[in-house]
Amino acid sequence: MFVDEVKFNVEGGAGGNGIVAWRREKYVPFGGPSGGDGGRGGSVIIRAVANLATLMDLRYRRVIKAPNGKGGGPKNMHGRQGNNTVLSVPVGTQVFDEGTDELLADLVEVDQEVMVAVGGRGGRGNARFVSSTNRAPDFAEEGRPGQLRDVRLELKLLADVGIIGYPSVGKSTLISVISNARPRVAAYHFTTLSPNLGVVGWKDFQSYVVADIPGLIEGAADGKGLGHQFLRHVERCSILVHVLDVPPDFDDGTGIDWTERDPIADFERINRELELFNPELAKRDQIVVLNKVDLPYVRARQEELEQHFADQGMTMLTISAATRQGLGALVDEMGRRVVALREGTDEDDY
Length: 350
Ligand SMILES: Nc1nc2c(ncn2[C@@H]2O[C@H](COP(=O)(O)OP(=O)(O)OP(=O)(O)O)[C@@H](O)[C@H]2O)c(=O)[nH]1
Ligand SMILES: [Mg+2]
What we know:
alpha/beta, single chain, binds guanosine-5'-triphosphate, Rossmann fold, Spo0b-associated Gtp-binding Protein, Chain: A, 6 helices
């Protein structure tokens, strides 16, 4: 199951109490104060790890509390510190304070971590209160409570390329033939219920990550379909591949509702949803891809669509994920743009 948002309460361990104790030694007539300090409570830490893909493991946790520090001992012995509690999350997890909505950390690298609840300080033992006016303090401090906080974790996938488009245009089919991902493919809408990530090996040593973003339809930004849930995963994809198909002019037997579907209108509708969700998204680099060109009624519109996008200053690539036609050119185009962005250069400057 893909879980990309969880909320829970975190609490640092309480510090151990300091104690009141007196030295008792043979031949020492007046044993002085010797109560040790309590240890600090453990802290709660969230750390990004490589081998997790969802926040599922944290789904049913309500309160996560680190262990308390131990009390101080006699003979000035310090109490043990509470161990830190470390929660592992996938890379790409953002950590928010649920109370203030402040972003505490964006964990984008393996081993990056953030302390979300610090453990309480240990109390001081009576040995620490000795002064010139009080040689025998008979009091000690209690440990402090640990920090308490409500946190919210949101996973935003880290992919170079996000594949968007209406249901059943062939996004999952495409990712399955260009990358190592093997998502489910079927002739009904919303086959894919959560984003799939795949790695595309390109030009010997370069590879990049593509994500199949499902469920975008008109109204997605308002919660229709599955889109709202997944739009945030588009946010980190620096390049978007916008897949289009053409409605058949006959009953294709799939049961898919093709009424009101048209590649140009579809393209504009999805872009509007991106814009409604986050205006920045609408400005992002898109590669327009016409899929299913193995079908005659798709081929019939290829030229007209190419012209349409060319008029808008965009290039449309034409592929068939099913027969693998045109995939090399698409993989190259995605790779070139990913590498250009990674190197911080703009292709248009050259
Ligand atoms: N003829 C033909 N059919 C294709 C092609 N690519 C995908 N299909 C078919 O289109 C249907 C939908 O494909 P999917 O890959 O599941 O589509 P999707 O965009 O992932 O759909 P959702 O997950 O529902 O959003 C399936 O029946 C595929 O076999 C293609 O290049 N040619
Ligand atoms: Mg799919």
